Amino acid sequence: MDILVIRHAKSSHDPEWTSDLDRPLTKKGRKRQLAMSREMAEHGISIDQIWVSPAARSKQTGDIIGLVLGVEASIVEVPDIYYSQSHEMLVSRLEQELASNPSGTIAIVGHDPVVSQLACFLTNGQCSGLKTSEGVWVRRDDQGYVLVKAFTRAGVEKTP
């Protein structure tokens, strides 16, 4: 099973958005996520499911990833991505998914601190945290979790 753990793209902090759940992506956030998603596409990533939180910014980030990768991935709203204060619930859910679909690929689009905790756990500490739009690609095999690639803003912002 392959897993992508991605922090949602940059979102608006405009006072008109009174609910944290309603805050949309900014223009810069959409642009950056498009570039990051194109980088993922260049590595031939195919996704079966995109897990998002109930927050608009997570859903919008998931939509961009699905659109750019050109997949008909099912988008699954997972409230614990937003409400949980720990990555452990997501690890448990991933293990359950692994049991039923060992060869699938899941993208998890969420929020800090949970997505950074999850990325650090799955990479055995090779990740120190995720900035908006950043992610890690991890493969689960018989030996455990292995980092395949880190997708960083620095890597795509230097690309013309």
Features of the shown structure:
alpha/beta; 160 residues; Rossmann fold; six-stranded mixed β-sheet
What would you call the shape? globular
Beta-strand content estimate: 15-25%
Helix content: 25-40%
Query: H/E order of the elements?
Result: EHEHEHHEHEEH
In total, the number of strands is 6
Largest sheet: 6 strands, mixed
Structural class based on helices, strands and sheet pairing: alpha/beta
| Mean model confidence by pLDDT | 90
Number of domains: 1
Q: Taking Cα atoms only, what radius of gyration do you get, to the nearest Å?
A: 15 Å
CATH class: Alpha Beta
Lateral arrangement of strands in the main beta sheet: 3-2-4-1-5-6
* Annotation field: number of helices: 6
Named CATH architecture: 3-Layer(aba) Sandwich
Low-confidence stretches: none
How would you explain this protein's 3D organization?
The protein is of the alpha/beta class and 160 residues long. It contains six helices and six strands. It has helices at 27-42, 56-69, 80-83, 88-100, 114-122, 153-157, and strands at 2-7, 49-52, 74-77, 105-110, 135-141, 144-151. The protein has a six-stranded mixed β-sheet with strand order 3-2-4-1-5-6, sandwiched between helices. Strand 2, helix 2 (56-69) and strand 3 (74-77) form a beta-alpha-beta unit. The protein is globular, with a radius of gyration of 15 Å.
